[in-house]
Protein 1
Amino acid sequence: MLIERFPQCFVLARDRKRPLKIGIHRDLTAAIPEVPPQRLRAALGWYAGSWAYLKNMTAGAVRIDLNGRTAGEVTAEEAAAAAARLASEKAAYFAAKKAARDRK
């Protein structure tokens, strides 16, 4: 739904996922009032929690709004937090995968 409504902002291509504007959930709630805010937050969590999105959260990267326009930059602290989350999630994923293989 978000990709269809806001193609300048939300994409499926991993290498094209750009950091989103801080507070974009408020813009989404205003733009799509018929969708419950919890559902929008869940969709944003899925999108912004993807490994591709986290990988693209580099210091100085441009953040975008719903129309794809510049809406700030990723700070060094935000980039470090994204990198740490990505490393943690990858480590957990590969550890679980290894444990599953070892059980066979």
Protein 2
Amino acid sequence: MKLPHRRQFLHLAAGAAALPAVSRFAWAQAYPTRPVRIVVGFPPGGGADITARLIGQWLSERLGQPFIIDNRPGAGSNIATEAVVRAAPDGYSLLLVGSYNAINATLYDRLNFNFIRDIAPVAGIEREPHVMVVNPSVPAKTVPEFIAYAKANPGKVTMASGGMGTPSHVFGELFKMMAGVDMVHAPYRSRSLPALIYSIDATVVGKMIWRVAAVTASARGDEVFELVHGLGL
């Protein structure tokens, strides 16, 4: 993961803050003077949480103040987003943003915020591939084999995701359209693999499209079988 340069981070953070009474340059030189929270729209243990903790540690070491991870799971990250929108625009409440934020703008008719208007960009911190994995009990070891299996079992294969509107959900729906298969969507509040592996019967979990970070951190080699690597946003 390519991390932003300290000067770049301070410059962008200063530009995003609305402090008309104070010189933005002077404010940037002093920032931060107290702990900063990074709000994450998913529970601990998943890819988003891992990313936030890595960047939080990096920033803490370089800026001399704690960067505290504040997990606010639910509604495909909308709860976390609204918490930051309602916070003071002083640079001390940061939001970990992902493609799910853009997706939510089209999925939800009534949100209590306008993402483009209410959230200011600070820095890009990562690009991520996704993988398609199945439970080892599924008799498919390649994508063509899985498509054939799903077509032979319409409505019986569960497509697990990290929640409505998350990339794993959108990728799954796109896969269903392109492959012409009928799978049941099972949304979860967590994007952490244990929430799926251990809460669903092994014979029911058919397929998951998941972040590489979550798969690597959460699953042992005998728990999932990777069909394809490289789906991404």
Protein 3
Amino acid sequence: MDTVNLPNDDAILATGGPPAGEKRPDAASGSEAAIVVEPVAPVSDATAGETVPASAIPAEEIDRLTGDIVAALKTVYDPEIPSDVYELGLIYAIDIEDDRTVKIDMTLTSPGCPVAGEMPGWVQNAVNSVPGVSQTKVNLVFDPPWHHGRMSDEARLALNMF
């Protein structure tokens, strides 16, 4: 399992991480937060004390899938905000399983979002279009609630929120 730190200090737990060397700004400190990619060998899950088995997907394929999934997520825009769901910090977790099922935890800018019933489907369709993904399951969560501090610098620039 790879751990990827996002600008909102949440970790994406996945069998794949973004391409090696990619950096995302840390929203809390304003500094660049390096992406941490754990080895593909079994690792200990520090929070649960369990061993996580190695992925059956080669590391190079995990890197490709992760980059392509992030690129697909960047094609999904909130119709009321001129920024994509990834840069807005609406994606809380991505998990790529050995059978290439992608599980995504995401939120909305508010529970009353007018596209609440549609946006998870947009995310699912975008990720399903990635070659090598067998299926996508999107889980809509509201804990923790979204706030503007979750946005990347790119989103803040697009929204003139500096």
